[in-house]
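Aim 2 progress. For MerR family transcriptional regulator, the working sequence is reproduced below.
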Amino acid sequence: MVDDLIPIGRFSRMSRLSIKALRFYDAQGLLAPARVDPASGYRWYRRSQAARAEAIRVLRAVDLPVGEIRELLGDDDPELIGKRLAAHRERLRARLAEQERMLRFLERLIDRGGNLMSSEVTVKRVAPVTVASVTLRVSLVTIGEAVQHGFGTIIGAIGTAGAHPAGAPFLVYHDVLDEGAEGEVELCIPVPAGTPGFREMPGATVASIVHRGPYDEIAPAYHVLTGWIEENGRKPDGPPREIYLNDPQTVGPDELLTEVQFPIEGDR
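Predicted structure tokens for this construct:
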């Protein structure tokens, strides 16, 4: 009915959605106007659309993605709707946990007077080591799960060969990972020297620093090492390594110890 039509400005005030938002939700297939003037493009809505507008406003207020709102509002199964909302709740919880982690990291930086690292860079010679390894192509999003699965695969291969781990596991970054690119990483677990079927990784002179804390707060260690290498006129001589000195299943995230090594050209 024509009398039921409400101009977009009035509907905006009724729904508490801006005119810009209403145009956007129309473009996204969420809330189309009941009528659009073919000459002027002016839009009218029906009063009955206010309920859908309110649902959209509430769901966007809890940061549900537009695509998922479209799917949710197109679903009339209460159980599936509940599952979709519960899945979003878990995403919000994970996001909150990450923000709390960043807050703790910031508090530690404040306690250190702004110093990124408390450890000093050391230069040392690391010996050749026989390793069981696997090379994976990963992104920043997939690396956590890939590393966990990859180390499990390596442990299985070591057991099948009748060998046993002989040192701390480590990871070699053959490529730089960033938000827009995948790269290759090599997962390694040392085994006794000369174990058949496994390769030997050559020794190297390395610049080293030990990071204490969660794995995802390790970036400052790389910053310190690369800065030290540049300031001291040394040259990188291979991909960096992360050696995991203790077990995340036995210590908390703040107690994790990770040694970061950058191979550099040999001693002067």
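The first strand starts at residue 5 and ends at 7. This observation will guide construct design in the next reporting period.
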